[in-house]
Write a structure and sequence with these properties.
The complex is a heterodimer of chains A (385) and B (210).
Chain A lengths: L7 H5 L5 H13 L1 H22 L11 H13 L15 H13 L5 H6 L8 H7 L8 E7 L1 H6 L1 H8 L7 E4 L5 E3 L2 H8 L13 E10 L2 E7 H10 L12 E7 L2 E9 L2 E9 L2 E5 L4 H11 L4 H10 L5 E7 L3 E8 L2 E8 L9 E8 L2 E8 L3 H9 L3
Parallel strand pairs in A: 1-10
Antiparallel strand pairs in A: 2-5, 3-4, 4-7, 5-6, 6-9, 7-8, 8-14, 11-12, 12-13, 13-14
Helix pairs in contact in A: 7-12, 12-13
Chain B lengths: L4 E2 L16 H22 L2 H17 L7 E2 L1 H17 L2 H13 L11 H20 L2 H11 L4 H8 L6 H26 L5 H4 L8
Antiparallel strand pairs in B: 1-2
Helix pairs in contact in B: 1-2, 1-3, 2-3, 3-7, 5-8, 6-8
The chains are: A alpha+beta (385), B mainly alpha (210).
């Protein structure tokens, strides 16, 4: 038998078919070089095993499986906290449906929904904080990473809101339900703006329908004393308050058009809407409110100050994003600067979720995908025409 | 030893707030957790990172639909996913830098029976060297070496790597040769560049310098 050294390792493992095993044994008895080779392989193998052995964690350093399982279950099956829709609110059901649709779009948690629809929903001050950002016309989008631990402090504020101490928004216009259409020109006519569609169809997905929805118009008033109470509830006492006794916020969320695509285990939605119209009376320095909002979100004092001075509060849509929920990146999309938010890899969601959002020429765009890679979402987003 | 589990129902894919996977999953989790952790830890070298990755591995298990009524080697499945995820994590420079940073700060999860800091430092360096070599090898080679070390049989290795069982022997031979070549080169360079105890001495005469 010729020397075939590649048979030696399985021979050493005893993994050759019996006939071959015997043949190699016999060969080794007679062949000096192969014997040496065999010895060499044994040494190498021992060395490799030694090398791999030292990589082992020590037994007591391995986490206890029962504990790990408990934490796995807690992480995996905790229902995603719902920051926007709250039980016990007297909101029109149509509005709820509309809101839930939004929430799905930003299922990554908070994001724009926080800022936009927070204006419309209950008087939870966490949301009110977003309201006070007084976004007049969105020109840019800025994401603030939020330490998730911070959000728990806002529970005290939620309790205040639940207790009715923070008032209720007044609904000036009820939202209507979503109208489904299959036809671009019908959708554009109902929406009364030019609806941009992607030149590039997302891979492996089919166009499902257009959804046209009008959002509500809402007014909400808050007293200075309420703001004070809220800040005290979370232990913030070093922030200047607006001078006026009462602040009134009016928000008007216009018609939006959503294009839905669906594939096997994936979904893509492109939503566009004119920038919402928001007003605060009496006029107040938006930076003031911005500072309050940032502090409420748990941004440390030094950082808050820096941000307050560097953002243009009249035209920036601020998105608080808990770091446990997702990460963001600034990207160039549709020729402008926007953000990509991706769900944290180990989030409760089973498939990759992300949203790209940007503002251009007075329209807000959201491209949200589930089971779609960001690069694909970007391709679609860039091809809107 | 082959582990087989016949799955009575396909594992349901969980949605938010819905009931967790059935009791079979928990059994698998508890049975295989330690080994999967150790395997991942050998590759990434950080306890924190290993924990995260292991949770991801089991998350995927909970979502995977095994074909009904067919025997499945869950252990092999877990090991395959674990090594793939761990190697994927190793790629990406940024993470590499962060990991080195973190590993430097993190106390190694290794039992140091000898309270000798110098020896421990050398061991830590050696671990890093081994990991680097594993990372430099083609994925399949590194996987083979690690999984065989973790105790998979030739048949299981064939399953995991999706190759014919007959070719596993050859693949192992090549993987070993590749590792050894780099390891010896490493040793040689250390001998040349370092003062202090040559690494070979620590491991007997095992270094096979061709």
């Amino acid at each position: 038998m010729k020397c075939n050294t590649e048979m030696l390792p399985p021979f050493l493992d005893g993994m050759l078919p019996p006939l071959d095993q015997q043949a190699v044994e016999a060969h080794l008895r007679a062949c000096g070089p192969c014997q040496l080779e065999c010895e060499r392989l044994k040494r190498n193998r021992a060395e490799i095993n030694r090398c791999l052995d030292i990589l082992d964690p020590s037994v007591e350093a391995i986490p206890e499986p029962v504990g790990a399982l408990a934490s796995f279950q807690a992480q995996t099956f905790k229902p995603v906290p719902d920051p926007v829709v709250r039980s016990g609110e007297a909101l029109a059901s149509g509005y709820r449906v509309w809101l839930r649709g939004w929430r799905r779009v930003f299922a990554l948690g908070m994001a724009c929904v926080f800022c936009l629809t927070a204006l419309l929903s209950s008087a939870s001050v966490r949301q009110a904080a977003a309201q006070w950002l007084s976004v007049f016309r969105v020109r840019t989008v800025a994401v603030i990473p939020v330490d998730p631990a911070q959000l728990e402090h806002l529970q005290a504020i939620e309790d205040l809101a639940n207790g009715g101490f923070l008032g209720q928004p007044e609904i000036l216009r009820e939202p209507d339900g979503a109208h489904a259409m299959s036809n671009l020109s019908d959708a554009a006519e109902l929406a009364d703006f030019k609806v941009r569609t992607p030149l590039v169809q997302p891979d492996g997905m089919e166009f499902e329908q257009f959804l046209v929805e009008e959002g509500p118009a809402v007014r909400y008033s808050i007293q200075r004393t309420m703001i004070q109470a809220v800040l005290e509830a979370v232990g913030i006492d070093d922030v200047p308050l607006p001078a006026a006794d009462t602040l009134t916020l009016e928000a008007d969320l216009p018609v939006s058009v959503t294009q839905k695509f669906r594939g096997s285990r994936k979904q893509l939605e492109i939503r566009q809407m004119p920038s919402p119209n928001l007003q605060i009376t009496p006029a107040v320095d938006p930076a003031l409110l911005g500072r309050i909002a940032l502090r409420l979100l748990g941004v440390p004092l030094a950082d808050s100050e820096r941000l307050v001075n560097s953002l243009d509060w009249t035209s920036t849509l601020l998105i608080p994003l808990p770091t446990s929920v997702g990460q963001f990146r600034e990207i160039t999309v549709d020729g402008v600067s926007g953000v990509l938010i991706e769900a944290t890899a180990r989030s409760p969601r089973r498939s990759q979720e992300g949203v790209i959002l940007w503002q251009r020429d007075g329209m807000l765009y959201f491209v949200q995908g589930r089971g779609v890679r960001p690069i694909e979402m970007l391709r679609v987003a860039d091809s809107l025409q | 030893m082959r582990m087989t589990n016949i799955i009575p129902d396909p594992l349901p894919a969980p949605r938010d707030g819905e009931n967790p996977p059935h009791a079979g999953f928990e059994r698998w989790y508890l049975e295989h957790y330690r080994n999967v952790f150790s395997l991942v830890y050998r590759i990434v070298g950080s306890g924190e990172e290993a924990q995260d990755l292991v949770q991801e591995v089991f998350l995927r298990l909970s979502q995977h639909r095994f074909t009904r009524g067919v025997e499945h080697n869950v252990r092999a499945w877990l090991y395959r996913v674990a090594t793939n995820l761990a190697f994927n994590t190793l790629r990406g420079r940024k993470r590499q830098l962060m990991r080195e940073d973190r590993a430097a700060r993190e106390a190694p999860l290794i039992q140091s029976s000898a309270p000798d800091p110098a020896a421990e430092a050398i061991r830590q360096e050696t671990r890093q060297a081994v990991r680097t070599i594993l990372a430099q090898l083609p994925d399949r080679d590194a996987q083979l070496l690690l999984l065989r070390h973790a105790g998979l049989s030739y048949q299981e290795l064939a399953d995991v790597l999706a190759v014919a069982p007959g070719s596993v022997g050859t693949l192992i031979a090549r993987a070993e040769a590749a590792f050894t070549a780099r390891w010896s080169e490493q040793q040689r360079q250390n001998l040349i560049s370092k003062k202090g105890v040559p690494h070979e001495m620590q491991y007997g005469d095992a270094a096979a310098i061709p």
